[in-house]
Write a structure and sequence with these properties.
Blueprint (H helix, E strand, L loop, with lengths): L1 H7 L11 H14 L9 H9 L3 H25 L5 E3 L8 H6 L2 H6 L5 H5 L3 E3 L5 H14 L8
Parallel strand pairs: 1-2
Length: about 150
């Protein structure tokens, strides 16, 4: 990740790699490491190339999803998640089949002493484009009853 850190001008974090711009960064780094001429392509282009079966894009996407599995696992452990982890974002619903076959779940569970804990946590992919609005609406309704918020 030295190349990504040099590009950023600071140490690379997980969030620098697990996002649309992170997918683009990971793709550029992989071009450099493979001795190829760097192509600046968008996350949408990488996603489309993955869906079209381009081997290099598929490999980049799989690495991206493995990083996501690690970050999701760490977040689940840090927050004590039990009822589930929700994955959301612009790319993920479009690559559901790639996500399922990528090794994400195996990376999420891992081989640590906490694997048995993580294996019992359901992981779901949000596919509704308006999920945030639905959640906000539900919170608003609950706030009116004092169930999840109180007026100050």
């Amino acid at each position: 990740m030295k190349i990504a850190s040099e590009e950023l001008g600071r140490p690379t974090t997980g969030e620098d790699l697990v996002s649309g711009s992170g997918l683009e960064r990971l793709h550029r780094v992989r071009f450099i490491l493979n001795g190829r001429t760097v192509e600046n392509v968008s996350a949408a282009d990488i996603t489309q190339a993955t869906l079209s079966g381009d081997p290099f894009a598929v490999s980049t996407m799989n690495q991206f999803l493995l990083f996501l599995g690690t970050l999701a696992s760490n977040a689940a452990l840090a927050t004590g998640a039990r009822r589930g982890v929700l994955l959301a974002g612009g790319i993920l619903p479009r690559i559901r089949e790639v996500l399922v076959s990528s090794g994400f779940k195996e990376r999420f569970v891992g081989q640590s002493p906490m694997a048995s804990y993580l294996q019992d946590i359901p992981v779901n992919l949000i596919i509704a484009g308006d999920a945030a609005l639905r959640g906000a609406y539900t919170a608003l309704l609950r706030a009116r009853t004092g169930d999840c918020a109180t007026q100050i």
